[in-house]
Amino acid sequence: MSKIRLTKEFKFEMAHALAGFPGPCRHIHGHSYELFVTVKGIPVSDEKSPYFGMVMDFGQLKDIVRNQIINEFDHSLVLHRATAPPQITELGDFVSRLILVDYQPTSENLLIDFAERLKGQLPPEVSLFSLKLRETVTSYAEWFATDNL
After folding, report:
1. Are 5 and 66 in contact (CB under 8 A)?
2. Residue by residue, what is the 3-state secondary structure of 79-96?
3. Is 25 a catalytic residue?
4. Is 95 left (phi over 0), alpha (psi -120 to 50) or beta?
5. Is residue 18 within 8 Å of 101, Cβ to Cβ?
6. Domain 4-148's class?
7. Which of 31, 34, 72, 135 is catalytic?
8. What is the C-alpha R_g of the chain?
9. What is the pLDDT of residues 122-135, one digit of tens each?
């Protein structure tokens, strides 16, 4: 049977700051991110299955990505836990969607986090193939499963 790749695109808004970075990205700023999630599998061959001919339902993939990533990160401020100023939590509702992570919130590190969140949620016959995170119109980072065996 042929293996097929499916890709679903997601858009979300997120702010971050790269503490210690020698440029303007050390300040809190935001991006309109685009996340491309690509999975791989063999289409269902059982003609009696409602999923006949599908690797997986796009709606199921959408639900997984929304539950694991988008619902948490959309319209959030993401900061490295070790470098976030302690006063940040005192800003109340301005930072009610604050996410403190154990890594510098670069596109590269976000992809590593996102891959880990998704891998265990996919159906067993489907594997995560790649992730692409577009941070700006001209810049993106990619993660490939084959590079991370």
Report:
1. no
2. EECCCCCHHHHHHHHHHC
3. yes
4. alpha
5. no
6. alpha beta
7. 135
8. 18
9. 999 999 999 999 99
Residue extents of the structural domains in the chain = 4-148
Pairing of strands 127-136, 29-41: antiparallel
Please measure the distance between the N-terminal and C-terminal CA atoms of the chain and give it in whole angstroms. 23
DSSP, residue by residue, 19-77:
TT-SSGGGS-EEEEEEEEEEEEEPPB--TTSTTBT-SS-HHHHHHHHIIIIIHHHTTEE
Task: Tell me which long-range contacts 23-31 makes (C-beta under 8 A, separation of at least 24).
Answer: 28/77, 31/135, 31/136
Catalytic residue among 13, 25, 27, 108: 25
Q: 135 catalytic, yes or no?
A: yes
Q: Is 31 a catalytic residue?
A: no
Q: Using the predicted structure, report yes or no on whether residue 40 has a pLDDT greater than 90.
A: yes
Q: Within 10 Å of residue 125's Cβ, how many Cβ atoms?
A: 10
For 75-88, the pLDDT digits (tens) are: 999 999 999 988 88
What's the average model confidence in pLDDT over 22-43?
97
